[in-house]
Amino acid sequence: MPSRLSDAFRAHPVHLYPKHPDFNSLQELPDSYAWGLLDHELPNSSSAQSFGSSDNSVPVIDLTDPNALALIGHACKTWGVFQVTNHGISNNLLDDVESTARSLFSLPVHQKLKAARSPDGVSGYGHARISSFFPKLMWSEGYTIVGSPFEQFRQLWPQDHGKFCDIIEEYEREMKKLAVRLMWLMLGSLGISKEDVKWAGPKADFKDASGALQLNSYPACPDPNRAMGLAAHTDSTLLTILHQNNTSGLQVHREGTGWVTVPPLPSALIINVGDLLHILSNGSYPSVLHRAVVNRTQHRLSVAYLYGPPASEEISPFSKLLGPSQPPLYRPVTWSEYLGTKAKHFNMALSSVRLCSPQNGGILVAANDHKRLQAWPEN
Ligand SMILES: C=C1C[C@]23C[C@@]1(O)CC[C@H]2[C@@]12CCC[C@@](C)(C(=O)O1)[C@H]2[C@@H]3C(=O)O
Ligand SMILES: O=C(O)CCC(=O)C(=O)O
Ligand SMILES: [Fe+2]
């Protein structure tokens, strides 16, 4: 069984389309990128709301608010996503990481391909792994970093990789600290304390936790209504911390409302509940289904920090949350195994680790999961 994050995809290599176009040279949307009409830019579209009553917009939480723990608990239960302000990450660092991503994606295609992700690897340049589940290509490029970016950055920028490595390494350190703080707020809001999480380590600092950085680029698109930046998915994480530049594009799916745009707020970071927190909370903090759409005039960038437990630690619902009427809904799974499951089953990954209920005669998908699956627009 794989034990490091970088081994997670050994058993599930993806051979994605080898051709990477120079997006800027395309005046028309090639058929291979045409998904059919999306409704995100249609006039009067009710399915992509961004502003409205506060009930219909993603919660914004000030981390210095004395009530932050309760606000976060409510946001996790009802949205699976929230924005945070006063999070302690400096604007300088956010600007630096954004310009690192901009410099990277502006390199010529042949240069970026020198750091191409291998079919069974985690790090490097390429399409999102989930691309293999769709007949059409996504209007985006990605670059994944696990651990030190040094070796690959040296290929990309033979002369001046040093400054970019420093920025990424500092960003990884800062994200890790923020993730620990958010973890304790999210777990605390579930009534989980330090003694309940042995894998957080003796100092409760999640020292052995793992993380990946995903840089995403969504160039301006000649036909945005028919293109998809990043298809609807949930993250296979405990939580994800997302920085987006000043261009909107992230949408989250909410039952009963549909797609809701998460507006860029200066200095705010977006926090997604991932599938592993969904499992730990026994489904009470559902992972959020989200996607990225594109636009005609602006280049959008985002940087996601995908945070998970130690790669070989078994994750299962906290026993404190279980009882005679709350049986565990998910079987134990390691992050590494779960990433492999996602690579194989994509949107069925969470229900594939759901425990069978004997009353259902072994039928795997229970009522709630069923509703979630129906929300996936591609189903
Ligand atoms: C740790 C990881 C989560 C991720 C796969 C990865 O190895 C690094 C990239 C992550 C990402 C980002 C875009 C969406 C996503 C579904 C994908 O294809 O690559 C996620 C993966 C995930 O959360 O499952
Ligand atoms: O670009 C975005 O807003 C979404 C990125 C994302 O979902 C991811 O990297 O997992
Ligand atoms: Fe995501």
From TrEMBL:
Identify the pathway: Plant hormone biosynthesis; gibberellin biosynthesis; Hormone biosynthesis
Q: Which GO terms describe its biological process?
A: gibberellin biosynthetic process
The residues covered by the Fe2OG dioxygenase domain are 208-309
- Which top-level enzyme class is recorded in the Swiss-Prot or TrEMBL entry? oxidoreductase
Range of residues in the leader sequence: none
Molecular function terms from GO: gibberellin 3-beta-dioxygenase activity; metal ion binding
Q: Which UniProt keywords apply?
A: Dioxygenase, Iron, Metal-binding, Oxidoreductase
This protein's cofactor list reads:
L-ascorbate
Pfam families given in the database record: 2OG-FeII_Oxy, DIOX_N
Enzyme Commission number(s) from the entry: 1.14.11.15
Q: So which domain of life are we looking at?
A: Eukaryota
Q: Which family does it belong to?
A: Belongs to the iron/ascorbate-dependent oxidoreductase family. GA3OX subfamily.
What this protein is called in its record is gibberellin 3beta-dioxygenase
Species per Swiss-Prot/TrEMBL record: Carya illinoinensis
